[in-house]
């Protein structure tokens, strides 16, 4: 498996959009996710999307974003939009993609990363520290996490 920035394999952008929309969006938000994916394909800039490839097949994606939670713009950068193809779950790919973003952020000189999730225990087993609750738009409670790099 290899992990590359999406801008190196832009033929997968449509599938990334579809995954993010289906996993995190609502019926009317596909354009929103297409916009995020389009903006995350510029070398050396954030937001940045990474994809995991097994040969030519995309098996997962994750982002390094300036902001993933509008109500907490004081925290940045964010590990965002972690998604593993359903047929590939349970193989440790989520951890591998997290580590890739963590190392990339560390190389950029960041001291911490943040994320939010509706799941309370998944990220804690990878060293993320629960730092409180927040609100996703419009009023959805979520759990906030920090990882010191």
Counting helices, strands and paired strands, the structural category is: alpha+beta
**Strand coverage percent:** 25-35%
Q: Tally of extended strands? A: 7
Q: Helices and strands, in N-to-C order?
A: EHHEEEHEEE
Rg (C-alpha, Å): 14 Å
Distance between the termini: 24 Å
- Major β-sheet, in short? 4 strands, antiparallel
Helix/strand layout:
Elements: E1 2-5, H1 13-24, H2 30-39, E2 48-54, E3 57-65, E4 78-84, H3 93-107, E5 112-117, E6 129-136, E7 140-148
Could you give a short description of this structure?
By secondary structure, this protein is an alpha+beta fold. 25% of the residues lie in helices and 34% in strands.
Q: Which structural traits does this protein have?
A:
149 residues, 34% strand, globular, single chain, 3-stranded antiparallel β-sheet, 4-stranded antiparallel β-sheet
Please explain how this structure is put together:
The protein is an alpha+beta fold. The chain contains 3 helices and 7 strands. The chain has helices at 13-24, 30-39, 93-107, and strands at 2-5, 48-54, 57-65, 78-84, 112-117, 129-136, 140-148. The chain has a 4-stranded antiparallel β-sheet with strand order 1-2-3-4, with helices on both faces. It has a 3-stranded antiparallel β-sheet with strand order 5-7-6. It starts with a strand and ends with a strand. The mean pLDDT is 96.
């Amino acid at each position: 498996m290899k992990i590359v920035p999406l801008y190196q394999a832009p033929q997968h952008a449509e599938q990334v959009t579809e995954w993010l929309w289906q996993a995190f969006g609502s019926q009317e938000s596909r354009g929103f996710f297409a916009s995020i994916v389009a903006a995350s394909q510029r070398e050396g800039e954030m937001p940045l999307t990474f994809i995991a490839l097994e040969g030519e097949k995309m098996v997962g994606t994750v982002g390094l974003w300036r902001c993933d939670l509008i109500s907490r713009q004081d925290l940045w950068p964010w590990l965002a939009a972690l998604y593993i193809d359903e047929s590939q779950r349970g193989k440790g790919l989520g951890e591998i993609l997290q580590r890739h973003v963590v190392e990339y952020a560390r190389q950029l000189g960041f001291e911490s990363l943040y994320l939010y999730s509706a799941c309370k225990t998944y990220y804690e087993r990878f060293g993320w520290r629960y730092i409180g609750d927040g609100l996703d738009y419009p009023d959805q409670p979520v759990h906030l996490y920090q990882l010191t790099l």
